[in-house]
Amino acid sequence: MNNAEKYKIRSLADKQWYWISRAILKRYGRILKSSGLAVYNVLASYANSNSQTCFPTQKSIAKLLGLSIRTVNRKTRLLKDFRIIKAKKIRGRCFYSLLKVDTPNRIQIYAKRDIGDRTRGKTNNNKLTKINNKNNGVDANYFDLKPISRLIKKYDQRIP
Fold this sequence. Notes:
Layout: H1 3-6, H2 22-46, E1 53-54, H3 58-65, H4 69-81, E2 85-90, E3 93-98, H5 111-114, H6 146-156
Antiparallel strand pairs: 1-3, 2-3
Helix pairs in contact: 2-3, 2-4, 3-4
């Protein structure tokens, strides 16, 4: 028996797959944590491939993931706050829509947290001129991140 017979490579033709955007992992993974990403994955797995809508109950999501309903509720609220999903209640059922998440290449929201190799405190001991890299002008490639950045700062404080 050769390796090809032992292991079957997954195929996209069997329609037993779904997709999520890498932007969700890169941009929001640290804040959503594993439970938030798991809730998003369940919503993505239930979503219609054309309309990207689904309507699972929070109880069924919690049972599938082994989480409490309260945790699922918190994570769906967090996903709504970050405009990753849109939820609408119709006749007692919650309908979820998965929204497109754009990530411009030039913006790194977590740059402040990712630079752990820099020392804190007074680092300009060599008396060289410091350069101000803040972009005070308006750039057409940037979009308004103020509402999202406020939420990230709020939840970023919880990250050790």
